[in-house]
Design brief:
The protein is α/β, with parallel strands linked by helices and about 500 residues long. Helix content is about 50%, strand content about 10%.
Length: about 500
């Protein structure tokens, strides 16, 4: 495929001058249209080293308002912040908000190709990474993003010639490193890996544009023309989902006895004596396991969801009570604000992914998409339906990195919730916990009961299981979550020596 590109294509100087300025002016107009349409735009520049990525980016942004775009230079990063987290997190952090343009000088493709050529990832990891890239791009396009990907190509002979010229230049000599020459020797291997990756990620929603880059004028015009045509088409048509949500047998009927929540006995109890003994036992065991997780660089994510007044805060407090606070973070999640509201809903959760060896405890989570946002109409029906498999993909990506994921649903009866609400209302020290929103949510109990049952059934996986915690007795609920976490970590790590 890459070898079949006609690298000798060129553009006369006179023709170039006639074309280039109108293209740049039109792109500046389209930038304003992007802002008005509130569509994020991602432009990816990949290709052979010395093929002209830097010059192409300069030409692309030359007439743009610099307040509306950001260029991301993504070279290899072996810092702890990167290597101790899933590979795709680095790129999620750089996803633009609605109305913004992100331009990538190398991207999620370059690192993947480099690791493949250098033998740093196995065959199975290579396959997983390709799937993760496709999921990443599809999820963003489904959310309205416009994805434009360029592969700039030159021959091995041309690359060598350009390296030699650059080395002799006082201005550009620093740009040619020993690693560049090593890559030059692996030109054919890089081209082969790139071709395989391009073929598998060339999708209708995020197609590749292969650009012959021997002639600078031809390259510039082809890139600008492609961007202009792509934006013009995307902005004059309504956003189209990259994929259709799979047909799912949605649960219906608030009185349906088959709902998973209806099969839970929320009244399970434990005596105060048993609670005190087991609490101390499991808390001390968990402290040992926390250090073992750090030693083995095992990341842990705990998700707490549940009914209002189900006891999430008290449960989290007992779970963390004897842990080293340097090894965990509790992350409370509320309605998205500011930049959180202008990005894909998963963006803010990717930012909070813990480093390997640390715990992240989410007090509410990404599951708001299929509960509160669904019931309250804060997102469209197609968005919350699509979220079921987006969430499964998100958690699969974390699990493939080695993350332990446990999701707790703290379940109480409707009667117990009312009792706790009334208790809070009567207690001046707890009254702040009760809001008008809590009462409004209670009126929609049956709607939430259906949505939660469906959420659990659709996203209960072997790599990120749901644990329904019977919560009418807070003591029982606390011990169950502690015991579940301890047993799960012991299964992964083995029992630490006391």
């Amino acid at each position: 495929m890459l070898n079949a590109i006609d690298l000798d294509q060129s553009l006369p100087k006179e023709h170039y001058r006639e074309i280039i300025s109108p293209l740049k002016d039109r792109l500046a107009e389209l930038q304003r249209a992007v802002i008005d349409a509130e569509r994020p735009v991602m432009i990816v520049f990949e290709g052979i080293e010395a093929a002209g990525k830097g010059d192409s980016i300069r030409q692309t942004v030359s007439n743009l308002d610099p307040r509306g775009f950001k260029v991301h230079l993504l070279r290899r990063d072996d810092s702890e912040d990167t290597i101790f987290r899933p590979a795709m997190r680095r790129y999620w952090l750089r996803v633009p908000g609605r109305g913004e343009i992100a331009i990538f000088d190398q991207s999620w493709y370059y690192r993947t190709i480099e690791e493949r050529v250098n033998g740093e990832i196995s065959e199975s990891q290579w396959s997983i990474r390709k799937d993760e890239i496709k999921q990443f791009e599809r999820q963003l396009v489904d959310d309205g993003a416009i994805m434009i990907k360029f592969w700039l190509h030159i021959s091995k002979k041309e690359q060598r010639s350009r390296f030699k010229v650059m080395e002799k230049s006082d201005y550009e000599g620093w740009r040619v490193s020993k690693s560049d020459w090593k890559s030059h020797k692996k030109f054919n291997e890089i081209t082969s890996a790139a071709e395989e990756l391009i073929v598998e990620t060339d999708t209708p929603y995020a197609p590749w544009h292969l650009v012959p880059s021997t002639d600078r004028r031809f390259r510039r015009v082809q890139i600008l023309r492609t961007i202009v045509e792509t934006l013009n088409t995307a902005l004059t048509q309504p956003p189209v989902s990259a994929t259709s949500a799979p047909a799912l047998p949605y649960i219906v009927g608030a009185a349906d006895d088959s709902l998973i929540l209806d099969r839970i006995d929320t009244a399970k109890t434990i005596s105060r004596e048993e609670y005190s003994d087991e609490l101390d036992q499991y808390q001390m065991r968990l402290r040992q396991l926390e250090f073992a997780c750090y030693a083995q660089r095992l990341p842990v994510i705990l998700v707490y969801e549940g009914w209002d007044a189900a006891g999430k805060g008290g449960n989290i407090k007992r779970l963390t009570q004897k842990l080293d606070p340097r090894g965990y973070e509790v992350i409370p999640i509320a309605a998205p604000k500011g930049s959180e509201a202008t990005h894909h809903y998963l963006w803010r959760f990717w930012r909070q992914i813990p480093k390997a060896g640390h715990f992240a405890i989410f007090d509410r989570s990404w599951y708001g998409r299929v509960m509160v946002e669904r019931i309250e109409g804060f997102c469209r029906e197609d968005e919350w339906k699509r979220a079921f498999y987006e969430i499964n993909e998100f958690e699969r990506c974390l699990a493939d990195f080695g993350t332990v994921i446990i999701k707790f649903w703290l379940h109480i009866s409707k009667e117990e919730q009312l009792r706790r609400f009334e208790e809070r209302e009567a207690n001046p020290h707890k009254r702040y916990k009760l809001t008008e929103e809590d009462w409004r949510n209670r009126e929609k109990w049956d709607d939430y009961r259906v949505a939660v049952s469906e959420m659990i059934e659709r996203t209960n996986t072997n790599y990120a299981p749901w644990v329904i915690v019977e919560g009418d007795c807070k003591l029982h609920a606390r011990i169950k979550t502690l015991k579940t976490l301890v047993e799960t970590l012991e299964a992964r790590l083995g029992k630490p020596e006391s």
